[in-house]
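During the reporting period the student researcher (J.K.) took over the structure-prediction task from the postdoctoral fellow and processed the backlog of single-chain submissions. One of the processed entries is reproduced below for the supervisory committee.
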Amino acid sequence: MRVVAAMSGGVDSAVAAARAKEAGHDVTGIHLALSRNPKSYRSGARGCCTIEDANDARRAADVIGIPFYVWDLSERFHTDVVEDFMDTYAAGQTPNPCLRCNEKIKFAAVLDRALALGFDAVATGHYATVVHTEAGVELHRAVDGAKDQSYVLGVLDEAQLRHSLFPLGDTPKTQVRREAAERGLLVADKPDSHDICFVADGDNAGWLREKLGDRAPNTGGEIRDETTGEVLGHHEGTFGFTIGQRKGLRLGRPAPDGRPRYVLDIEPVSGTVTVGPRERLAVDRITGDRLRWCGPALPAGTILDGPDVTVQLRAHGAEHRAVVRVGENTLDIELLDLAEGIAPGQAAVVYDGSRVVGSATITATRRATSATGGPDSPVEPTW
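J.K. obtained the following structure tokens:
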């Protein structure tokens, strides 16, 4: 096959490209220019988006012995990922820009261009596995559970999976680094990137404050205690908070019982941020929209309630046993294992064993029954 290898400048994508070539494919390496001025996002060799990363990718392609090009997707990236990130935070929700980048950039814009140019597939360094069966194509977790990235790939549909290669899905990360060194790739010891690529210093709130400007729904508001209604402090914008946050609240005084407070609710119109004890973060029900199926779409009315049905709510979070009900373009998820700090805007990815069934964007959560035995109101719209 003719394969485009997306090379970020990190060790994983370099080894994936090398393996694709070794498997007999006709491989061309590409690096995505996601900003016309890379320093406007961040500096330093940290995994993508920088000049250093582009140079690292080019050197790796030279060592592997494949052609290499840079594709400018900066305008598409800014519109589909950066603007979406800002809009979602401005709405009082919590986005996952890496998941959106996979959906809109790496497996939409890149794949569409690759197919138009006569390529057959796109190879990346993601830790996940594509399984071809008689019934179709399936996405599964990687062998290395600690590095598994199937969560952020849960937005891929069956057509995209048919043209996707994940050469590292069967390999532990430690072995990938050893292999990179044996192949003479200089990125063998390059640190992984963990921060949002377009936030220069990891200060999301500061970046949002600078970029949103007049687009922010409010420039300040109150921080209130859920139990007493007392105003505990003030803030400069709800975009600086996310559900479950504990640090950076700057309340000046502890709770009467001395325990820390957590963000329980964010109301972007009034600017009110509600805080309270950790146990009030527990959630037992979730709804979501923007359904994406990693295989055939499940019809409305389908109920997934087998012993292996789980839901993952964060990129490296735990699996929660669940009962999943499919509606008209919605998912209703009953969590058998409670989750904490779940915010609208995040993704809920549904699994059946190791197989990714699909995903939805969380629109509402319901807090678990309180300690007094009474039902709590939902964090977002009424069920």
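The committee noted the following: The first strand starts at residue 2 and ends at 6.
J.K. will present the remaining backlog at the next meeting.
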